[in-house]
Specification:
Two copies of one chain form a homodimer. The first copy, chain A, has a six-stranded parallel sheet with strand order 2-1-3-4-5-11, sandwiched between helices. Chain A folds into three domains: about 45 residues, 434 Repressor (Amino-terminal Domain) (Orthogonal Bundle); about 130 residues, Rossmann fold (3-Layer(aba) Sandwich); about 140 residues, Response regulator (Rossmann fold), CATH 3.40.50.2300. Chain A starts with 8 loop residues before the first helix and ends in an 8-residue tail after the last strand. The model of chain A has no long low-confidence stretch (mean pLDDT about 95). Chain A is about 45% helix and about 15% strand. The first copy, chain A, is α/β, with parallel strands linked by helices and about 350 residues long. In chain A, helix 5 links the parallel strand 1 and strand 2. Chain A contains twelve helices and twelve strands. At the A-B interface, helix 4, helix 5, strand 2 and helix 6 of A face helix 4, helix 5, strand 2 and helix 6 of B. Chain A binds a DNA duplex (30 and 30 nucleotides) through helix 2 and helix 4. Chains A, B: One of its GO terms (molecular function) is DNA binding. Chains A, B: This is LacI family DNA-binding transcriptional regulator. Chains A, B: Keywords: DNA-binding, Transcription, Transcription regulation. Chains A, B: InterPro entries: HTH_LacI, LacI/GalR-like_sensor, Lambda_DNA-bd_dom_sf, Peripla_BP_I. Chains A, B: It comes from Mucilaginibacter pankratovii.
DNA sequence: CATTAAAAAGCAATCGATTGTTTTAATTTA
DNA sequence: TAAATTAAAACAATCGATTGCTTTTTAATG
């Protein structure tokens, strides 16, 4: 099994009494090979079951036609959709994807990045882990002359190509929507503020309160409620307040929103009449809970495509300097029953 | 950006007035390099920001330390979990993953496979598309001396390493469970019978009927109901029958089960009292529908790990022949409200 | 028919790391 | 101190494809 030798251009050359270079050119459809011999070479290649050794080819050519992707978790809806989007776009260009997951661990993220650098990928696409505050490893990518595109969770300090969601604006709109529905005490479940996306969402929330002339109430803002369980706990705490909120913006995820909904139901607090709920991400299940959950769609698949296309675009300006560029995608508020107070 | 030249072992050698071979050996911690020089080389390598060119290394070594994965869709819970499992296991061994998606298209699947062969991956892990009936491309993998592992949706005819779910048994148990709950007319929503997994599930269904002395009723078995929409249609059709079923086994997926549930609710058919529902896959949402949906857990993450470990195991028997081997994982029935008739 | 231009094929270096073999240097033994 | 042994480093070929340059062959032109 493992010792089977593969056909190379030398084998083809030898069989046809030609020079390997001609074989190579023929296989690359160069015009400096006679059509007849070209046909002959192609035929023989097929006969001998030849396939190009991409390793050798890329080594010679100086690139790998490979894009490395690092995400916290592959099996998370948002990320797997982004990856699917990237794959969709890169595949057409003959590029391959090498996927790594950091598992939200800084150490593993650094390892992943190093592996990708070793692999000589042409580009690294990354969404950083929650633990990541230091960016030496990202700088290292750049130092190796490798293109770097950050998406979603990006390191603001590092000037690179970025594709982000406009978290601030979408959160603003979500909270405005809730206020317009008549909710007056809107609570916020925050994610780790280390991550810029969660800071932005908080800012959107604050701006919405402000623009609607509502006070900012500290006890209605719960830090680090970014899992279903943490959100459930937070909800219990919030609903037991002397002055409980009449709405909760689970800015971290739909899973958090789900946690809220479950606790509310358990405590016989009526949603949406007594409590409005808004999540984030538009997971499939938000449509089918009862009541269905208002949320924000991030266009994850499209985001992936955007990332890929950004790379190909930048590829083309060979000689010009790389200018840090940020593409911001505007997420869409999906209003559902969980916020239909009226 | 793109013209930045990377440090090679030659650069290090030149700087230290040594031979590249010594540098290489030092970096590989060979014993035939003096400890002092080894340290010096390592230090210089770090200074010059050296990283090994895996392309060159692999070319020389004759392998790529890369595993190619082909799945119908990356962003499908089951598959992304399997991939996460594979990644988890392979990462530790210093292997990389190249991921492709066939989008359920035969043509694209063939293309993916060819790319992976070109890439000289060490192993291809595949779950075939719904369109795939022909297996030349898989044979081709073998012919190139590349290890091949099929999982979940496998081509029975091709003798390779396989990791599968025991679909027959789990379906049998699911239907038995429903019958035990008192359901007497259990309908079946089938997937495309081209795929062996769907054939097996049907067999399990049939065996359950037989062993419980229930008749097989043709009009209760609906072909090709493998999306939410198709299942919804099928359900409408089933529930309008003069003698409608009192339970539906949506053997294709939980999404199908969801379709069933929605139609039942719309038609004011009470679940589980008047209609039992069982899905397949244990998607997250099955827990939170009302009622929650009985389903079957496939241990997808574990399945991925199993695939990876199978490869590493087989790696070790260098000289022995590869014996076709099948690892069958027993899925687990998760009983929930949607089948609690009593 | 000789000369020139163009087409086709061959030659050889290159990408960067690895590794079997040889040479040199250092150390040990007689 | 010379010979033998061992350690360390140098040399050179190799993996397979690509590509600039040279040579050979063929076709075209005057």
């Amino acid at each position: 099994m493992r010792s089977k030798k593969r056909t190379t251009i030398y084998d083809i050359a030898e069989k046809l009494n030609l020079n390997p270079s001609s074989v190579s050119r023929a296989l690359n459809n160069s015009s400096s090979v006679n059509d007849a011999t070209k046909k002959l070479i192609l035929k023989t290649a097929k006969e001998l079951n030849y396939t190009r050794n991409t390793l050798a080819s890329n080594l010679r050519k100086g690139h790998s036609k490979t894009i490395g992707v690092v995400v916290p978790r592959i099996n998370q809806n948002f990320f797997s959709n982004v990856i699917a989007g990237i794959e969709d776009a890169t595949y057409k260009q003959g590029y391959n994807l090498v996927i790594c997951q950091s598992n939200e661990l800084y150490e593993k993220e650094v390892q992943c990045v190093n592996t990708l650098i070793n692999q000589h990928v042409d580009c690294v696409v990354i969404s950083i882990s929650v633990e990541t505050t230091d960016h030496k490893h990202l700088q290292n990518i750049l130092d190796h002359g490798i293109q770097l595109i950050q998406f979603d969770r990006v390191a603001d300090e590092l000037e690179t190509l970025k594709v982000t969601n406009d978290n601030e604006q979408s959160s603003f709109e979500a909270v405005c929507h809730m206020i317009k529905q008549g909710y007056k005490r809107v609570a916020l479940l925050e994610g780790p503020q280390k991550l810029n996306i969660f800071r932005q969402r908080k800012n959107g929330y604050l701006r919405a309160l402000e623009e609607n002339g509502l006070p900012v109430i500290q006890e209605l803002m719960i830090e680090n409620a970014w899992t279903k369980e943490l959100s459930a706990n937070a909800t219990r705490q919030l609903l037991s307040l002397p002055q409980p909120p009449d709405a909760i913006f689970a800015s971290t995820s739909d899973f958090s929103a789900l946690g809220v909904l479950e606790v509310a139901t358990a405590m016989t607090v009526k949603v949406p009449e007594e409590l409005g709920i808004c999540g984030y991400s538009n997971e499939d299940f938000t449509e089918i809970t009862s009541p269905s959950i208002t949320t924000i769609d991030q266009f994850s698949f499209y985001m992936g495509k955007t990332v890929a296309n950004l790379y190909f675009q930048e590829m083309e300006n060979t000689d010009t300097m790389v200018v840090p560029k940020i593409i911001s995608i505007k997420p869409k508020l999906i209003t559902r029953s969980s916020t239909q107070k009226s």
